[in-house]
Amino acid sequence: MTAHEIDYRIYGEEMQYVEIELDPQEGVIAEAGGFMMMDDNIKMESIFGDGSKQDSSFMGKILGAGKRILTGESLFMTAFYNVGIGKKNVSFASPYPGKIVPLDLTEYGGKFICQKDAFLCAAKGVSIGIEFSKRLGRGLFGGEGFIMQKLEGDGMAFVHAGGTLAKKTLQPGEVLRVDTGCIVGFTKDVDYDIEFVGGIKNTIFGGEGLFFAKLQGPGTVYIQSLPFSRLAGRVLAAAPQGGGKDKGEGSILGGLGNILDGDNRF
């Protein structure tokens, strides 16, 4: 194996975290902001590029960093190494309610494609890059579902899905249409494209966006019920204007209470 062979345990239900058990000299890489806690004798190190062992040359690291810029991520990742004696633990937490999905890349032919913000952590040696699209439609209209990351190697990787997780196994030729933001990831053999919803009424009044993802088997697809973009949009829509407290919240009068209270000025 080129990737470190790590053990893990996932805790929690709605707000999960994964605890990685490292033998001496083993390591795990993670995105900034996912770290939760670690034992003594765990050493942190910033890595320039995607954290892959294979990209040890300067140009390889530059190319790895360039891929991360295209996906909107930081130039650096963080590696955590066990430099002590005996087994040590380091934990990473979900960024919002949902499920952590463990992926043994050897079971998926050494490659898994996922949303750019789904990746949480992986064994040292797993490469995290960008999945280039070969179709114009994805690039022009894919939106949040277009810029995908690819996880390559023979180690464990962990991705996060918002809300409830659905796992679909597609047979050859079987098609699944999904909201682009609800895709967590899929195996390398799944054919992925963007389709126009169609119909003037759907376009103007549908409210579900103009495009969806078409996934065609064979392969395995992971779908999330609560993408972060949808969660953030609902929070922003519910936030009171001007940053003040909504006095109508929880009252029988609701928003009318603000008008009677003289808060709304015309």
Explain what this protein looks like in three dimensions.
The protein has helices at residues 58-70, 136-141, 200-205, 228-238, 256-260, and strands at 7-11, 17-22, 27-30, 35-38, 42-48, 76-82, 88-93, 98-104, 111-115, 119-123, 127-131, 148-152, 156-162, 165-170, 175-178, 183-187, 191-196, 211-216, 219-224. It has 266 residues and is an alpha+beta fold. A 6-stranded antiparallel beta sheet has the order 5-6-3-10-13-8. Strands 11-12-9-16-19-14 form a 6-stranded antiparallel beta sheet. Strand 1 (7-11) and strand 2 (17-22) form a beta hairpin. It is globular. The N and C termini lie far apart (69 Å).
